[in-house]
Amino acid sequence: MNPSSVHLSYEVFPAREPSTAALDHVMTSMADHQAELVSVTFGAGGTSSARSLDTVRRAAEIARCRVAAHLTCVGRSRAEVLATAERLLDAGASGLVLLRGDPPEGMSAPYRAHRNGFASTSEFVGAIRDRADQRHEPVKIVVSGYPEVHPSSPSLAHDLDLLAAKEAAGADSFTTQMCFDADTVLRYRDAVERRGISLEMSVGVMPLIPADRIALMARRCGTRIPDHLLEQTTVSTEAPEATATEIAVDFIERLRREGLNRFHLYTLNRRDPSVAIASQVCEPAELLT
Question: Model pTM?
Answer without folding.
Answer: 0.91
